């Protein structure tokens, strides 16, 4: 049992996180990089079902993210009902049609050409699950308004954990952000202080699917030593 003590009137527990010898720190950092470097955004999915427990574990992992004042300003809606997936697909495609035909600039559309995206989003029905991440601009407990802090940063970090957990399980996703996304609040019946942040289909990558032949920036392009 972890030791406990009171600091400034608040209970603290002794941190029992693992430490490793230096070689192991190195090998673990390499292994994790190798794992994450294989992650690709996937837009075609198998319809193969996945146990709900897997999704619970993935969402619990997202919930381990740090957040402003530990307010955990997130809600994860897990959708498996085909009727709701269809509603979401139809509404997303309606917005995307307008985006591609008139809202997005030529520069933007040119930048997306290498990725081969368009307004059609069959993955919103093919993937066995959709996760919609909501950010809570404030919290509510027993009718009381709870202040939240660094909401975008917190929910962004939690979404990163979510994507890493999906990949670690051998599953795939795409961070889909149809714009505007308020149809998700309506379909999922979310209160006005929650705003849709990301929409992620989750499933097995379609056997034989292709991904864009693109490269990641090299270490000397992203790391500056001081
Ligand atoms: N939301 C649109 C467009 C889109 C925008 C960006 I920036 C991307 O990296 C990918 C797609 C869509 O999902 O097609």
TrEMBL record:
Pfam families: Nitroreductase (PF00881). The keyword Transmembrane does not apply. Residues 39-204 form the Nitroreductase domain. Keywords: Flavoprotein, FMN, Oxidoreductase. This is Nitroreductase family protein. It comes from Algoriphagus sediminis.
